[in-house]
Amino acid sequence: MTKVSQQIHDLIDCDLVLDTKKLQNVMINFEHEIKKGLKKATHDESEVKCFVTYVTKLPEGSEIGKFLALDLGGTNFRVLLINLKGEEDYEFKSKIYAIPQGVMLGSGTELFDHIAYCLAEFVKEQKVNDEVLPLGFTFSFPCQQNGLTTGLLIKWTKGFNCSDVVNKNVVELLEDAISRRNDIKILVCAILNDTTGTLMSCAWKYNNCKIGVIIGTGTNACYMEKSCKAEFFETDDKVRDENVIINTEFGAFGEKGSLNEIRTIYDKDVDENSINAGNQLFEKMISGMYMGELVRLVIVRLAEKNLLFNGNVSKKLTTRYQFYTKYVSEIEAEDEDVFTVAREILSELDIHDATDEDCRIVRYCCEVISRRAAQLVSSALATLMLRIGDPDITIGVDGSVYRFHPKFHDLMTETIKEIVPSNYNFKFVLSEDGSGRGAALVAAVASKDIKDKKN
């Protein structure tokens, strides 16, 4: 950590630096919420909903064949054709399609007709429109799953507000749109979210991968749970699978008070001035959407106390969300006592006469916020590791914060080593091709399962 004065330490550390005891309390509370989320009697009151995904099998690495993936989670969506060749060998083609603003705010029929049109164009371009291709559908909106191909939309987010979709099975809406075209042959085998896709993508190469986590604009994690502990997991199969992936939706952790001990004035400010006040409190302490804003609030407070910039703050610096999360990564990437990038960033914020000491304090603010974020997400992951109970485990990771922050991986590794027993061996693996390849692998495993049951 950057060296700063005791006065700065005294003002910042008491709020934002988490010791081992506080992290262990986070783990205890998180475990408590997981148990509530898995049980029918306590699910509604749980902060961590633990939705059953109905994905029960991980890929073996030997899957063969052509599979489609549809990845919808924002104003663009991606379609992929993946040719699995076994022994971890594969080829893929992909294309990104835009969703016009009018479609995002129109009817559900318009949205899924647009998606089906793009799917049809893609498979025709790839000359596979005469083949019956299994498809995995990554749908990164809050869903209640009642089966591998049943996902009821709970609410729209990310600027979407299509009518007649909430509480409907989005797989069925997609299938209906494909049927209306009558020119392509696609079998929708599974719906999943991006954390499940990340886990599956990494499990293809690492068969001990049992946790998937996204640390980007938002944050969430999924993990392999014993199916007997997931009371919402209902199946018609005579032989019940031993495990099932659980989508924790842990961004909501803390919404009913579990994080009150460590939430600060900065966290409360971010939450109260957000569009979803009271929701996603854990996410607001960790993810890329909020990390830069937390740093800005700390910096402004220090300046107001005349501990930065001679007490002067610019209009830009006092404007919400003008200190971007990418600034945090860029400032922390510089060598100690080098402040070239820090000065450039401060100049963009109309702070033109920053001293070396100013830059040093700004870097320390970035370090404290990003370290806390890494510690918090690591506490949740450590809890999942202990629940799984496998002392040799791989964690699949994706997301812009993990990918681009220069120290996040090391901070997470350091934290987990501090709070789990020493006999636990773990490693983080960056997901290749993200949830797209994962969706295709879910389709591959699901379609194989269907064939096996028919035989």
Model description:
Strand 6 and strand 7 form a beta hairpin. The N and C termini lie far apart (60 Å). This protein has 15 helices and 13 strands. The longest helix has 33 residues, at 356-388. It has a 6-stranded mixed beta sheet, sandwiched between helices. Strands 4-3-2-5-8 form a 5-stranded mixed beta sheet. With 455 residues, the chain is α/β, with parallel strands linked by helices. Helix 1 packs parallel to helix 12. It has helices spanning 6-16, 20-38, 101-104, 108-125, 170-181, 194-203, 265-272, 283-286, 288-304, 325-333, 340-348, 356-388, 400-404, 408-419, 434-454; strands spanning 51-52, 64-72, 76-85, 90-98, 133-139, 143-147, 150-153, 186-192, 209-215, 219-226, 243-247, 392-398, 425-430. It is globular and about 70 Å long.
Outline the fold blueprint.
Layout: H1 6-16, H2 20-38, E1 51-52, E2 64-72, E3 76-85, E4 90-98, H3 101-104, H4 108-125, E5 133-139, E6 143-147, E7 150-153, H5 170-181, E8 186-192, H6 194-203, E9 209-215, E10 219-226, E11 243-247, H7 265-272, H8 283-286, H9 288-304, H10 325-333, H11 340-348, H12 356-388, E12 392-398, H13 400-404, H14 408-419, E13 425-430, H15 434-454
Parallel strand pairs: 2-5, 5-8, 9-12, 12-13
Antiparallel strand pairs: 1-11, 2-3, 3-4, 6-7, 9-10, 10-11
Using brief descriptors, characterize the structure shown.
alpha/beta; 6-stranded mixed sheet; 5-stranded mixed sheet; 15 helices; 13 strands; 19% strand; globular
Write a brief caption for the model:
With 455 residues, this protein is of the alpha/beta class.
